[in-house]
Write a structure and sequence with these properties.
- This protein is mostly helical.
- It starts with a helix and ends with a helix.
- It has 9 helices and no strands.
- It is elongated.
């Protein structure tokens, strides 16, 4: 029996009982109406909450996919084109200056990284904070690849110790950070150790960790919504 029916039954019961004051019937009816209104408000709020969670889950899904796409596109430009452009220019004294191919590559990389930044901004808004943190590790690793595959990166990596190690810390990967620290440990920069660190800790595992956390966040919200809608 719902609350309105309960209230109506109570009114009839009270009205038919000659031993109860007649003023009690309106009071019971009013109480029933109040309870019914409260129940309707609760149902409306629960419905709004489910709708909001469904909307947020979809926005998060879109943000995560956009971020993954943007970072992969940026990596393709940085790694594939960067490797091709850098190969004939890997002299330690190389400076890009007015090299049109290098300048074109840098402009394209900047454009792709701009898309990554915009995707990260949206992801930061829809959250949650742990996904923002995970996304920033991907961006930090991507920025390190930018320097690694840059045509002038071979000469600059010796000068950019502080920047490289700071970005490596942002990846939250201790093994990767230790590898880069080892390359800078001696007065003479160890290029082989530096290269090994990048080879052993590629960007793919950072992507995989982000994707795994994204599935957990979206799946967890979906399961909660299903549980609430069960009869």
């Amino acid at each position: 029996m719902n609350l309105s029916a309960f209230a109506s039954a109570a009114v009839v019961s009270v009205s038919s009982n000659s031993g109860v004051e007649t003023w009690l019937a309106p009071a019971v009816a009013g109480l029933g109406a109040l309870l019914a209104a409260g129940a309707a408000l609760y149902v409306a709020r629960a419905t709004n909450r489910r709708e909001h969670e469904g909307w947020l889950r979809e926005k998060r899904r879109e943000a995560y996919v956009t971020f993954m796409t943007a970072t992969r596109d940026a990596y393709d430009v940085i790694e594939l084109r960067g490797r091709r452009v850098s190969a004939p220019r890997m002299d330690t004294d190389y400076e890009p200056k007015d090299d049109p191919e290098v300048l074109g590559l840098k402009a394209d990389i900047d454009q792709e990284l701009g898309a990554v930044k915009r995707a990260l901004d949206v992801l930061t808004i829809v959250g949650p904070p742990e996904m923002e943190s995970r996304a920033r590790t991907v961006v930090a690793r991507l920025n390190l690849d930018r320097g690694y595959y840059s045509p002038d990166g071979h000469s600059n990596r010796r000068k950019d110790k502080d920047r490289v190690l700071a970005r490596a810390e942002e990846t939250q990967n201790i093994a990767f950070l230790d590898g880069l620290r080892a390359a800078y440990a001696n007065a003479a920069f160890d290029d082989e150790v530096y290269r090994a660190a990048f080879h052993n800790h590629r960007l793919a595992p950072f992507w995989d960790a982000f994707a795994a956390d994204a599935r957990k966040i979206i799946g967890k919200r979906a399961r909660r919504g299903e549980q609430r809608t069960r009869p």
